[in-house]
Amino acid sequence: MTEPDGRLYAPIPRWTPGASPLFAAALLLGASAAACGGRAAVAPPGGGPASRDGGGAAQPSLTGPGGRAAQGALVTMVTPSLLLPDLVGERGVVASEAGAKRVLIDRMRAIAHDDGSIERAADLLPSGQVTALKLPTRLGGGYLFYASNRGSAQLWRAPAWLAPLAPLVQLSSEANEIIAGFDRLYARLSHSHRLFAIDAQTGAAMPLGPLPPASSYGQLAFADGWRAVVEADLRGMLVTFDAGATWRAVEIDARPTSVGIIGGDPAVMTANGFYSVDARGSVTYRTLEASDDVQELPARVQGPFGRRPLRAAVEDGWPDSSATAVVARGGALARVSLRDGAVVDVATDAYPEREATCHALRTGASFGFVCGEREGPTTLYAFQPPLGMRRLMRFDKPRFVSSSGNGALVIRGSCEEDGDVRDGRAYCIVAADGGTREIHVRAPASDVGVERVVALADGRVAVLSPPRPGASGQVTLLKGSDVTAVPLVLPTKPRSTARELQRGMWLEGFEEREPGVLGGWVEAGGPIVGVRIDVKSGAVSAGAPRQDATGAILSGRFALSLGEGERAAESTDGGMTWRTIEVPERDDDTAASRTRACGPVGCVFKGWIRVGWGKTALPDDLAEAKPPPVLQTPLRAGSPIGMRCEALGASTPPLPDRPPAARAARDVPTARPARAAARPQAKETPASAWAPFRNTPPPALGADEIGFDNGAPYDIVTMRAYAWGKRGADWARAGRWLIRFDDRFDPEGGVRSSGVSASPWSDEASAAEALGVATHGAASWGAYLDPGGRAALTHVCRGAGCNLFAVSEGLPVLPLRDSAGRAGNFLRPFPNGAVRLGETWFFATPGGSYDAVALWRADLGIARQLATYSRPGRTSYGVDPPRLVRRALGGGVGLLISTAPDPGVRAGSWHVLPIDRDTGALGEALPLGRKDLADTPLDRCLPGQDGWLLDTGLEGSPSFDLGGSYPSVDGAEFRLRLDPGSACVEAMSVRLQGTFSKAPEKQLDIAADAIPLAATERATGRRWRLRCEPKDAAR
């Protein structure tokens, strides 16, 4: 053992055992005893005032019977126990108000007061990320707690922060956030970022209700029961002043970054300021610059006991009742409530050594403190009731002081300041009655320090010589000048324990547990073992070894073995028995204080303050909250669409068994050579299939002509482009081209063709390259059918840039250019993102980023960007792309959006946002009905019947009875005209997975009231005409 290094050695060892080398040496004991005059007598403590008793129903109480200990009585252990989080910094702080902080940490709810006291709730939240939301009075007040873990979100309510948790509901998806709306809660689901509405009282599913119709929603902020600001898909920031009855756009000049409530008003934040919307509807811009008049409040000055006096009381204090403990720090002496950590009473000038560290220990019939400074003096104090300290002894240098557990102390070194001992070590023994004596333990220098000295209650001194290999050790008893050596009798079973006692290190801190019985700890390079020694017989008994890789905390007869996970163990009888305790798993161990200590008040360890020992005050303390019920929303069965159809005949022949061979393309020059220049090296132009389009042969080629074609034969809207001309000729004058596309809803055939148009390319090489026949980069073709079926916007794209062509039946192909005259810089339009209104095309493309949509208007081939609509970041993932629709007979254009289904309904709904054709401004959303048209009468559109025209599939799997034997049907689509409260069908289309075998004997006409159906065989391309009517039984 080494000499003191200038630090104050703990009077009750707080040593964390770990792997250590075996140390045992032969001890040559020579003992001498000499009486020394004591510096001062230890007076028994007196009583004191009753401790503060406060708190709420949600917090477990440590207050036991008896209150303050009566004069002369000594509290040696606090029980029952209470586990509290050791709050460090601002970790876990949710909000600060009225001199307290609401804390959500390590599955616990707590309130940390500015006076250092802390309260916590009795129940635990589940593992995982837990978030708290303060509910407004319109939703019943109190708090909502939600945890997202393992694919679900669990919600609880509580009327107060520490009140018992009442289970609300469990959602089938994790939730990113919960938002308090006007009259319901909104959960944003993690997997889709969609909103889900919940009744705040019952947890039942609700419709999204007063929110503006939208495909998705970004941020939401509700100021009160009437005002809110919502970020809606495509429409941007909207505000309401009438609880969602009407919504209007917030006109702002900068890109919004977030929304919130500032000064009680809805606000839209930007990079440099925010737009505040007051109750009158006025929008005011304000900067984020802080006012010069605003000053930060000064931080609360911490006293000598720090932010958490309770931690100080557990680390270094002693209980003076079952509900309070006394601790000394920085010259002050305080009485701290063990229920909540509040300082009940304080004496600010209790002792002069303000820089010393003081630790409580049993002294005489009461307790006292040993205080020491680094490289400075060591002073012993006795506690003086009601709240004072009386000096007992003082040494000018650091001393090791150990309690014998019975009121007596053992001080390493002479009782005199300048005492000198040769060949050994002196110990100053302070008896419980205050008398002192000095003993000398003489041994070779290499063996000094292995002995453990304990002052017994009967006045004797026990010097323990631990076992070593080949020797069992002994206890030497000193009584006056009498010296008695008692060999240790180690247990023989279990053999593992006997082996650990023989080779382990017998730690400092042995004490008298019972009259004539010593107790202490042995560490054997990992396992720890508690031992008891009968000094009369030398018999040694041992508890079960405790394996603890994280290190146990030992302090006299108290021990805490942390173990792993959420299970630890405690011992209050020196390791003879262990009791398992539950410790919640912490969210973040890195933020915990590294100081660990135990004593009669409790333990501090690993981010926890455990006040007391034994069972908890409440039998169900720290029980996990009851899980909420899983949300059950039964689906209401709607009436699916069913059609009974009759075949009228085939409108197109099947594809030929073998298409005609493609005409071989001869070598042609890459460009026409100049007259005076030498002809360049010829370049091979790739061959083209010159394939038919849907049973329609390609344009006829002359003997000296070459043609190139390409298209999209497998898209929903099939198309093909043809370009041809004489070999080697100037195609700008002699070249021709056209584009064909298919209207799949036309039972009469559906092939549409533009007029033959002049070639926009100068020669065959340029044409082959433009159509994608050449090998220089892949070119993809596609078409967007106007829902009228007579026009299409086609494109050919290379990479991100696309050329667009407006194609109308019988009219020349019209290439589109932007206002700068560029033709190949358009982004690919969205599917169903183009409509033709008169001679004007409207089409929608991505706006250059994932969160923007651009609307274009093209007049006479010149396209200009009309407007840009924003989409909420992330929340628009997985949402249907916006699609353009138009009025069937009028001049209206709109954006069709899909809204989420109501609870219990499978299908969502359609809404249309009318578009101002000149500015691109969006109007109020108009409801067009459910996307499955369930329970909606479907009839054929009448002549002159207007409505929003769109080609679409329906949710709910419509069925078609084609009569007799027929192949399977898929890809059912409807050409609809929709208005609020009405719907009609122009035509229908399906795909047949085989050959239709029930052809009519003669061609029939479609009745005026029947709905035409075009059924196309996928394999042959043959299209059949059918007439259908709704099944009465199914409708």
TrEMBL record:
Domain of life the protein comes from: Bacteria
Region (Disordered): 43-68, 649-696
Biased composition (Low complexity): 661-680
Protein name: Uncharacterized protein
Native organism: Sorangium cellulosum (Polyangium cellulosum)
Lineage: Bacteria, Pseudomonadati, Myxococcota, Polyangia, Polyangiales
